[in-house]
Design goal:
Strand content: 15-25%
Largest sheet: 9 strands, mixed
Helix content: 40-55%
Mean pLDDT: 89
Distance between the termini: 49 Å
Structural class: alpha/beta
Number of helices: 11
CATH architecture of the largest domain: 3-Layer(aba) Sandwich
Length: 292
């Protein structure tokens, strides 16, 4: 099995037919069909069920599809890294959660670029939990993450700062009369959450479990701007870090919890990973920077 075989196989899986895959790859259908037949003969496996309206994967085909996607992705990353090495350039693949990306990462980036003007970044905007998974499978070099559950960590880390998670609502919401809130105060309120993959969702769900209730979720989004706008519309409340509350924006208010919700933010990377020079330089820069 070659990389070309895997590429052809993945294309057929994702296009649903040899005809569509051949068009997407700009190859002839016989060439594509021959490659798939070679794969099946080489391993004595049936990868597709052939039907009148196209192809469907067998269980063996589904297994190969998942493995082939991962291998091809890793190959593409390696190919890019080697080209960067040849040019003495290093692209730092970094995961940045939306909230951290809106207030912390830009400051760090600006400081870093003053000392490393030729640095290149490839930024993936994901939740902390998703970033951890991508670091484990080496799709990312490094990433920012919430470190509150560091007892279960499977990565190296560099602590950056502590912040606080607030309950954010429209200023006209009656709950604003309170100086602080508890989960009992908001257990029936409409809630706007980030999508799955964000650490704060675990924390929030755990809080609701303590009062034997599920959050009244009216919207989930991966976009910070969308969540803010719905709060401004008084559609519901959201959980945001205190740095994201603009003192000049009179339309929303951030209420602390009576039992302060501290969030620890840091940079993480895979344990014993052989990181390239660009990523190592960024880590060392953070270690030497005492204030961001």
């Amino acid at each position: 099995m070659t990389l070309l075989h895997m590429k052809y196989f993945i294309a057929v899986c994702e296009n649903g037919s040899l005809t569509s895959a051949a068009k997407a790859l700009f190859v002839t259908q016989p060439a594509l069909s021959s490659a798939i037949n070679q794969l099946e003969k080489e391993y004595n496996l049936k990868l597709f069920e052939r039907k009148n309206h196209g192809l469907t994967l067998t269980s063996d085909g589904e297994y190969l599809y998942e493995k082939a996607k991962l291998l091809l992705s890793q190959y593409e990353i390696l190919d890019k890294d080697l080209k960067d090495l040849a040019e003495k350039k290093y692209t730092i693949r970094i995961g940045v959660p939306p909230m951290i990306g809106s207030f912390l990462f830009p400051k760090i980036y600006n400081q870093y670029m003053q000392h490393h003007p030729d640095a290149k970044f490839e930024i993936w905007e994901e939740g902390s939990l998703t970033i951890r998974k991508k670091i484990e499978n080496r799709s990312l070099d490094i990433g920012f993450s919430i470190l509150n559950d560091s007892a279960n960590e499977h990565y190296e880390k560099e602590m950056i700062l502590e912040t606080e998670l607030l309950y954010v609502v429209n200023r006209n919401n009656p709950i604003c009369q309170k100086g602080s809130v508890t989960i009992e105060d908001i257990k029936d309120e409409p809630i706007i959450l980030f999508k799955e993959g964000f650490f704060q969702n675990q924390l929030i769900n755990h809080m609701y479990q303590e009062v034997n209730q599920n959050p009244n979720i009216i919207l989930v989004s991966s976009q910070l701007s969308v969540i803010r706008n719905f709060v401004k519309m008084n559609a519901g409340g959201a959980f945001l870090m205190k740095e994201l509350i603009d003192s000049e924006d009179e339309s929303i208010v951030g209420l602390p919890f009576s039992n302060q919700l501290v969030m620890k933010i840091g940079l993480i990377w895979q344990k014993e990973a052989q990181l390239h020079l660009g990523a190592l330089e960024f880590i060392n820069f953070l270690r030497q920077t005492t204030k961001v």
